[in-house]
Amino acid sequence: METKTRAIVLRSVRYGDSQIIVDVFSREKGRASFICHVSKNGRGKIKQQLFQPLTILEVVYDDRPTRSLQHFRDIRLAQPFFSIPFQAEKLAIGLFVAEFLSYALRDEQCNEPLYDYVESSVMWLDNVEGRFANFHLVFMLRLSRFIGFFPNLEEMAEGDWFDLRNGAFTPVRPLHPDFLRPEEAAKIGTLMRMNYDNMRFFRMSSDERNECVDTILTFYRLHIPGFPEMKSLPVLRELF
């Protein structure tokens, strides 16, 4: 069946001398993998530049469920970037977000609201001119709403512990080791009040920001089996 969809590149790897395997998250089909030939001299229709992390594409392909690797019938750039590939800080965030999504959306099926959230977030980052150091914190926490384990803030009270396994605040210490103490749990409430428009008003030191990243990644590892260590995280720590 012919499928036309927008898709966000998560990662690409070389396969032999002239082929490349591309993992994308698409609006119509969710996670999908493709194999294609890439011209060595840059004169072919399909160029490797199309497969940089977070690139937004328009693709057409014959969807064959029995195939683990699909083949493009047509591919083109849907939305050019103006700043992400050219600013070191944005590029570092972009690489981190792409790697994070490749793990967080590993088995994700069609989820149009989730796709729209990811695409609009990427475009926000590309268009913003400054004060985006907290972008990845907001992005990761709010993504959890779309994949089923958004922290429950309804019964949050001062002095509560935060149960990372259940994603909920509790007045008593959980019986398992995966929790945040009250002073740490209060930061979750602060993070949940942040969005792309107001996050510039929340001042954090580099150490505080890195602690938040570690906590959020721990939260994801508890809810997504096999979520590995992030290779792009050290670069992000250095810049932010």
Automatic annotation (TrEMBL):
One of its GO terms (biological process) is double-strand break repair. Keywords: DNA damage, DNA recombination, DNA repair. Coiled coil: none annotated. GO terms for cellular component: bacterial nucleoid. Pfam families: RecO_C (PF02565), RecO_N (PF11967). Residues 1-81 form the DNA replication/recombination mediator RecO N-terminal domain. HAMAP family: RecO (MF_00201). Belongs to the RecO family. Involved in DNA repair and RecF pathway recombination. This is DNA repair protein RecO. It comes from Hallella mizrahii.
